[in-house]
């Protein structure tokens, strides 16, 4: 039985990218493996958050984890800030990370650029905390989207570095990138990743978008003008992104999609994707609405999750303190 860990930031309403790239893949492991799924609220505060929104987004994300089909009897679902070993080990991971390697992270560079003069230090030390999240549980596999590759490589480097410096302690984890949907792009600027924080509402499909909103956003999705459904990421990024979304849901190959829509044009294709998305998201949205109206149930699941996660994490943290001499006995 492998140990699986992954996390999502409660930093806004989740997108189709979060679902296809991560959330839906979490389900694959729940019947066979020991799974820890975390709401990483301490990562969210690496950029400014409104406290009320962060509070609400944390609960919403818990409901969404469950709404996609994660079973709290099978997986441990918890909030990062409720298990103090995450920041404790995060600090230790910082002590073995080099500023240079953190400055090279592309997500840091992108986010720091947007903040001009006031770059929070935690934006730089985000990856050591992510490494701590993963390493605390003896994780074997981390299901994430493509954009987390660099952070995962650093996690492996830090695990190996710690083991070399202080003796064999951590399992060196592997990344698991799903087959389709590993990188869903913006509907408005298809060379850019679809992101929770995009200010252009038409750029992202949100998991809780109403059917008419999904139809409208797809109609407005940027495409080229040759009206031919053909996969060519370089020259036709917009239509290729839509084909990627279609393929991620139906598992049809690009060749098959091209055949199906040969001579039909973009209008028909966009209409069919909208239908497909509405059908995929409707059951999740219905389940979500039930859960969000059951606050006691959510609280009891998160309380139990935090207790289970804490029990496991504190064992590993103790080993780390002993290995480093950070203790009296
Ligand atoms: P976050 O909250 O940005 O994204 C959560 C997950 O969604 C994936 N994802 C995407 N996949 C495909 N296409 C997209 N457009 C897209 N946008 C986001 C992300 O790859 C991720 O899997 N650093 C993480 C949070 C984290 C974490 C961890 C993950 C903190 N600690 C430990 C795994 C293990 C992040 O920013 O996720």
UniProtKB/TrEMBL annotation:
Residues that coordinate or bind L-tryptophan: 133
Domain of life: Bacteria
Enzyme Commission number: 6.1.1.2
Main enzyme class: ligase
Motif residue range(s): 'HIGH' region: 10-18
Chain location of the short sequence motif 'KMSKS' region per the record: 193-197
Principal cellular location given in the protein's record: cytoplasm
InterPro entries: aa-tRNA-synth_I_CS, aa-tRNA-synth_Ic, Rossmann-like_a/b/a_fold, Trp-tRNA-ligase, Trp-tRNA-ligase_bac-type, Trp-tRNA_synthetase
Keywords: Aminoacyl-tRNA synthetase, ATP-binding, Cytoplasm, Ligase, Nucleotide-binding, Protein biosynthesis
Subcellular location: Cytoplasm
Keyword Cytoplasm: yes
Keyword Ribonucleoprotein: no
GO molecular function, one term: tryptophan-tRNA ligase activity
Catalytic activity line of the entry: tRNA(Trp) + L-tryptophan + ATP = L-tryptophyl-tRNA(Trp) + AMP + diphosphate + H(+)
Residues the entry annotates as binding ATP: 9-11, 17-18, 145-147, 184, 193-197
Subunit structure: Homodimer.
Record function comment: Catalyzes the attachment of tryptophan to tRNA(Trp).
Alphabetical list of PANTHER family matching this protein: TRYPTOPHAN--TRNA LIGASE, MITOCHONDRIAL
Family: Belongs to the class-I aminoacyl-tRNA synthetase family.
Protein name stated in the entry: Tryptophan--tRNA ligase
Species in which this protein is naturally found: Veillonella absiana
Gene giving rise to this polypeptide: trpS
């Amino acid at each position: 039985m492998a140990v699986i860990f992954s996390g999502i930031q409660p930093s806004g309403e989740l997108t189709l990218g979060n679902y296809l790239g991560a959330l839906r893949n979490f389900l694959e492991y729940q019947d066979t493996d020991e799974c820890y799924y975390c709401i990483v609220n301490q990562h969210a505060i690496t950029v400014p958050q409104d406290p009320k929104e962060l509070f609400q987004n944390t609960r919403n994300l818990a409901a969404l984890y469950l709404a996609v089909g994660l079973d709290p009897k099978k997986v441990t679902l918890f909030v990062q800030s409720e298990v103090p070993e995450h920041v404790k080990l995060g600090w230790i991971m910082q002590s073995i990370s080099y500023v240079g390697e953190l400055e090279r992270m592309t997500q840091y560079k992108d986010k720091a650029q947007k903040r001009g003069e006031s770059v929070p230090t935690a934006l730089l030390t985000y990856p050591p905390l992510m490494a701590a999240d993963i390493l605390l549980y003896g994780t074997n596999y981390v299901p994430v989207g493509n954009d987390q590759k660099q952070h995962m490589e650093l996690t492996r480097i830090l695990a190996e570095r710690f083991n070399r410096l202080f003796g064999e302690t951590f399992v060196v984890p592997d990344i698991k990138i799903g087959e389709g949907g590993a990188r869903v792009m913006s509907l408005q600027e298809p060379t850019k990743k679809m992101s929770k924080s995009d200010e252009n509402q038409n750029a992202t499909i949100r998991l809780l978008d109403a059917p008419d909103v999904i139809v409208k956003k797809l109609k407005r999705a940027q495409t080229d003008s040759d009206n031919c459904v053909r996969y060519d990421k370089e020259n036709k990024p917009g239509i290729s992104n839509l084909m990627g979304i279609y393929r991620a849901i139906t598992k049809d190959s690009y060749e098959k999609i091209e055949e199906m829509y040969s001579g039909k044009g973009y209008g028909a294709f966009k209409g069919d994707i909208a239908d497909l998305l509405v059908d995929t998201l409707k059951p999740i949205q219905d389940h979500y609405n039930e859960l969000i109206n059951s606050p006691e149930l959510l609280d009891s699941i998160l309380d139990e999750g935090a207790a289970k996660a804490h029990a496991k994490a504190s064992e590993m943290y103790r080993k780390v303190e002993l290995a480093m001499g950070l203790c009296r006995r």
